[in-house]
Design a protein that fits this description.
The protein is built from one helix and ten strands; from the N terminus they run αββββββββββ. The protein has 153 residues and is mainly β. The protein binds zinc ion (ZN).
Length: 153
């Protein structure tokens, strides 16, 4: 009788440090948050779509954008998730502090969303379409995490 080979599993952690440029538009978007607690976006001259975070080229039109628009610190909650599952935070290598809630906010006047933390952990108090407002960290470093969270208004 032929014996099946034993299944062997190799366990390891791969460390893959990386850095990438957010580009000129991404840099201005993040710098406005860091320096002025303000959102800006780019508007497509062809279809009028407003991007926040700012982008250089409109995806559907493939048109270069150079018009900047100022956007308010309020927006609409498009989707959210309360995270309760334990995991290792890839940014720190440490266990993440759970629970926390993140959501996709479409800033008023924008057509795209930003992914941010929300201050509400009770999902029964959150609803798609609800109005929310940004709260910024006092110390800001030029990352999207300079937005402390969005809170319901
Ligand atoms: Zn366009």
């Amino acid at each position: 009788m032929k014996k099946e080979p034993e299944q062997m599993i190799f366990h390891a952690l791969a460390e893959v440090p990386y850095a990438y440029s957010v580009g000129a538009e991404g840099s201005r978007f993040l710098a406005e948050i860091r320096d002025n607690k303000r959102f800006v976006g780019t508007r497509c001259p062809k279809c009028g779509k407003v991007y926040a975070p700012a982008r250089k080229v409109c995806g559907p039109c493939f048109t270069a954008m150079d018009e900047w628009v100022e956007l308010p610190d309020t927006g609409e909650l498009m989707a959210f998730a309360v995270v309760n599952m334990y995991f290792i935070d890839p940014k720190t290598g440490e266990p993440a502090i759970v629970p926390y809630t993140y959501g996709y906010i479409k800033l008023d006047g924008a057509d795209t969303t930003i992914s941010v933390l929300l201050d509400e952990l009770d999902e029964s108090k959150l609803q798609r379409g609800m109005k929310m407002k940004a709260v910024f960290n006092e110390e800001r470093v030029g990352l999207l995490t300079d937005i402390k969270y969005f809170t319901a208004v």
